[in-house]
Here is the input.
Amino acid sequence: TEGKTDYHDIRLLDDGGYILQCYDSTWVDMGAPLPQLVRDILVIQEFNSEHNLLLNWNAMDYLSIEDYPNINLTLPEITFMHGNSIEIDSDNNLLLSNRVSNEVLKINRVTGEIIWIMGGPLNEFTFIDDPLNGFNKQHDVRRIANGNITLFDNGTQHQPMISRAVEYAIDETNKTARLVWE
Here is the structure.
């Protein structure tokens, strides 16, 4: 099926290029009586100033929907990802926010390979000094000048429900995220 460009985020680059997000969908056989539509498959595309495609990252090429127990795979229509921010990280790779599964992904901007996943069912990080043990339904992941990551934690799954802005000191080697401010 045809993809659609999403309004959540676009990065305009100093050299005239741009990075945007869009969605694809496909029919899959997940063992239900009929094939199911997997929609909102996040696609990140980077173009140069002449509009030539440099990166075409499709979540289905790097992640398995079956690894996400938070997604109901018995429905006739499955929402896989809801990307809502793209950040060019300090090492020139990309930070992506996937709200559906409460995760931030760091991907290699050249190869598309996933470098790490913070939060969600595939979490590789230990959250330190965070009384809520992480974020959920987040938006607007950004790397700030001191090297920390900020995001808006919508918090709709916290008990009690609470929204907050958070700043984490990230240790990518030891895979820790220390809450330094909220």
